[in-house]
């Protein structure tokens, strides 16, 4: 019985190919209707070029529930590879020659791809009558595949790019440049897709890519890695979409691990116009030159050299903390231990512990905090100390749809939504600077998602997954540099700021000397980190077992303090859009000034709840049974830092000035900024109601004074401020009621603002 007769008797629909040497059927595993499953009629070996399944014929019989037949096959135990027929190079030459007769396709390649005629000839790009054809050669110039691009001049909803079935395994495109002895460049760009690589080659940039897209970089082949050995600088330049960013991270991690002698960089394609996402968009549509692309390479982010896991203290910290008995420490012992490892971080430590333990409980609002500090200020090392504890969830960064993905799960690829993993944890992002350095659209999308999440529930709808909804409550700690936060504060405030901030103070000269001494002595810092992290994790564990109800209700003075503090936070986080105007004075001199086009000031309700919870958790951390001076002192520091950095600096200058008064010139001299910048900043604060502006005469400059409500709060010592009862009587209602009628785009409210704050504080 022939193989075809057997299939016919079993009512299996098949297509005979290659003069009967093989047949095609619908694969029983993936059930692809295009009959991608090929069976060799002589050997019975089979392979599906859609799902990749394959083997000997009895396996297929079992899956199809077919009976045994009297078919004579070659030995079925022999492991033979399914051989594809060789590609004909004559076809490539014919396609290439035909291309020159189609001016519309040539024009598209010139204008949309940016190719010159010499480049088209070098890469043998052709036209088969319906599609643009790009041949794929291996490093030895063997033709291994063809990439087809549907006629770009015609509208089509069908797939635009594809290769030959069975030949679409990942390969290196332009592989020969790695082994070309004539190429003088010591650097290499890894891109995404053949068009980008062809264009880079054209402008003299040594470049390669995988023929299987960004996804294949997650499983970088060993032979590719070995081929890159000896390359001094490798620049990963993938598309700036979510898939490209994720693949770039994976590839960077892999290459830094195995190519220790190479410097690895990640290049971000800026969105210079809507829709710009890859190298071709940047160079061709962006009208850029080689020099512009070189500038991108010089700005690329260098990846840190990989540290082997056995030397990573976090591995040992986690193991030790979970395997050894926990100890009971006092907060003073924990602070002493951490200060030995990270000088001048005692306040930051207490805040991180307070925020971390708050994430494990039900709260009115979630505590989200930025730890702000310059590079190497210790903020990242501080949050790493809590990484071993299971109540924390650490990530280095976030991708576009990390919280809820719109992708549909398949058999081969699972979907991992982040949001449900965060419930009842402290979510720690060790570097928000990386997130804010992404494309502005991506950054705003991530922040927008977090705004929705702050309400403790988030629902999203996608055409692939339908509506997905999660209820998650967690605290958050994020590390960020002052410059990055200041740059993005305006957007955060416009959508309603959910973040409090604390700035890591500069170390003293004595602290710096201790750090230098430790470095020169080559002390075992990894061992010290392990010991410190175990102490911190033990203390966090004990905090999580404490009842917040053990903290007594706030005293009256503390409540009044939080009222003023919350109003200051609300105003400090406000948004002011200014416009410069001018007039001529009596001496016909041009005098410039700023007027407010719009002022947005949030209500203090969210701020007062955040500060109330922070104060109570700080009392828990300090081992106190009520909120006292120590907790309010830390809260005050947070209040003064939870505004744009330049405003916070101006407040510090006002605090140190006599009577809380200053002129634009005086601020300029102490601030290190121009007079115009200083005046603009003070005008912002005046429109926000934090300072009062007294216009000077033609001979005198304007004087800016802290508003009465905030003057004592900022300038007085906490103890002195709390003991000043008259201060509370004067500031209780006056400016709050006035704020209701101030310039703001908030909706009108009939409710009594003082009554709402009192209810929140339990008065």
Any key phrases for this structure?
single chain, 763 residues, alpha/beta, six-stranded mixed beta sheet, 27 strands, 17% strand, globular
Helix fraction? Answer: 40-55%
Q: Could you give the distance between the termini?
A: 94 Å
What is the residue-averaged pLDDT? 82
Shape: globular
The main sheet orders its strands as 10-12-11-13-14-15
Instruction: Supply Rg.
Output: 33 Å
Number of helices: 31
Question: What's the count of strands?
Answer: 27
**Secondary-structure content class:** alpha/beta
Uncertain segments: 75-82, 725-750
Sheet with the most strands?
6 strands, mixed
How much of the sequence lies in strands comes to: 15-25%
Quick structural gist:
This protein has 763 residues and is of the alpha/beta class. The chain has 31 helices and 27 strands.
Descriptive notes:
The relative contact order is 0.06. The protein contains 31 helices and 27 strands. It starts with a helix and ends with a helix. A hairpin with a 3-residue loop joins strand 19 (457-462) and strand 20 (466-471). The strands form 7 sheets. A 6-stranded mixed β-sheet has the order 10-12-11-13-14-15, sandwiched between helices. The protein is of the alpha/beta class.
Write the layout of secondary structure elements.
Elements: H1 3-9, E1 15-17, E2 22-25, E3 37-40, E4 46-48, E5 54-55, H2 57-64, H3 89-99, H4 103-111, H5 117-122, E6 126-127, E7 131-137, E8 143-150, E9 161-163, E10 172-173, H6 176-179, E11 187-192, H7 194-202, E12 207-210, H8 222-227, E13 233-236, H9 242-258, E14 263-266, H10 279-285, H11 290-298, E15 301-302, H12 313-323, H13 331-341, H14 346-358, E16 368-372, H15 379-384, E17 392-395, E18 426-429, H16 432-436, H17 440-453, E19 457-462, E20 466-471, E21 475-480, H18 482-494, E22 499-503, H19 509-520, H20 525-544, H21 556-572, E23 575-584, E24 590-600, H22 605-622, H23 629-641, H24 645-656, E25 661-663, H25 664-671, H26 675-687, E26 691-694, E27 703-706, H27 708-715, H28 718-723, H29 725-731, H30 734-740, H31 753-761
Parallel strand pairs: 11-12, 11-13, 13-14, 16-21, 16-22, 17-18, 18-21
Antiparallel strand pairs: 1-2, 2-3, 3-4, 4-5, 6-7, 7-8, 8-9, 10-12, 14-15, 19-20, 23-24, 25-27, 26-27
Helix pairs in contact: 12-20, 13-20, 14-20, 14-22, 21-22, 21-23, 22-23, 22-31, 25-26
